[in-house]
Amino acid sequence: MATIKDIAKKAGVSPATVSRVLNYDQDLSVTDKTKKRVFEAAELLNYQPKKKSQKTAQKIAILTWYNEQEELDDIYYLSIRLGAEKKIQEIGYEPQQFSNQQALPTPPEYVGMIAIGKFSPEQMTMIADTELPTVFVDLNTLDDGFDSVTTNFHYPVKQIVDHFQSVGINDIGMLAGQELTSDQKLELSDQRYLTFRNIMRDRQLLNPNLVRTGNFTVKSGHDMMLEMIDQLDFQLPHAIFAANDALAIGALHALKERNIAVPARVSIIGFNDSTVAKYFSPQLSSVKVDTELMGQKSVELLLDRLETERTVPINLNIGTELILRESSK
């Protein structure tokens, strides 16, 4: 794992600044540009470079559904994008990022597209109209006729509940996330919450009072955790499952503010195992989602589609790994 000093050197900032950025220090006064540099340096230093092949430098578009600020609030998608960009370069193509606010790329300048995030049916129709072979990442589009790369949710959520119960904890709460497609036309269900709810209900452990739902941001995790502390007092659950690492980090900040010991009183496990999880204090237990692999496989699917002219869509569902660190028993 890269050290704080390694990241500081690559980002061109001090080690203290790196530490505060990776810990989402709300009192730190640096620009979003500096934060982005730190996050990208941390991600890139954790990638293993591979040898490039020699091909004509044709362009592959990377379409992102989020803006730059949202990418900083939850670096999950940043990690996927960087993984895709590196793979595109390795196979000899040129990556070009597009936001959802820009006109969509078209052939012949572009040979294909990687669409990262959540898109509404209307947006998928517009993407189909470009006639570019497209692979979606983090959205199962098999029924829509597109290739896609997604993450398995059922098994890791079951692992988390099993782990908490194995250490004697049955009062398990959750900080769930909610989001909309970038055109604000479709509200998306959090599959992690639906899985958690079903597992807890089947085990007769589900308590709706121990669940909060908000945005997938550090601020949202902080606010929901404070609300839970104030409303539940001594009935605060002994374990919290957060739907992503940003929510978990916000919750850890709130628990620290209220002098609630982690993990002695409350254990927390996040989801995604972003680079930040390793550098936060206490180090965050989390479900590792191999975002580099997701980005890589999306490009490989696109390349397969280009080279074979395959018409049958494929969905690759990537497995996960539960990583236990200091934030949980």
Automatic annotation (TrEMBL):
<dbReference type="InterPro" id="IPR046335">
    <property type="entry name" value="LacI/GalR-like_sensor"/>
</dbReference>
<keyword id="KW-0238">DNA-binding</keyword>
<dbReference type="GO" id="GO:0000976">
    <property type="term" value="F:transcription cis-regulatory region binding"/>
</dbReference>
<dbReference type="InterPro" id="IPR000843">
    <property type="entry name" value="HTH_LacI"/>
</dbReference>
<keyword id="KW-0804">Transcription</keyword>
<dbReference type="GO" id="GO:0003700">
    <property type="term" value="F:DNA-binding transcription factor activity"/>
</dbReference>
<keyword id="KW-0805">Transcription regulation</keyword>
<dbReference type="InterPro" id="IPR010982">
    <property type="entry name" value="Lambda_DNA-bd_dom_sf"/>
</dbReference>
<feature type="domain" description="HTH lacI-type">
    <location>
        <begin position="2"/>
        <end position="58"/>
    </location>
</feature>
<dbReference type="InterPro" id="IPR028082">
    <property type="entry name" value="Peripla_BP_I"/>
</dbReference>
<dbReference type="Pfam" id="PF00356">
    <property type="entry name" value="LacI"/>
</dbReference>
<protein>
    <submittedName>
        <fullName>Bacterial regulatory s, lacI family protein</fullName>
    </submittedName>
</protein>
<dbReference type="Pfam" id="PF13377">
    <property type="entry name" value="Peripla_BP_3"/>
</dbReference>
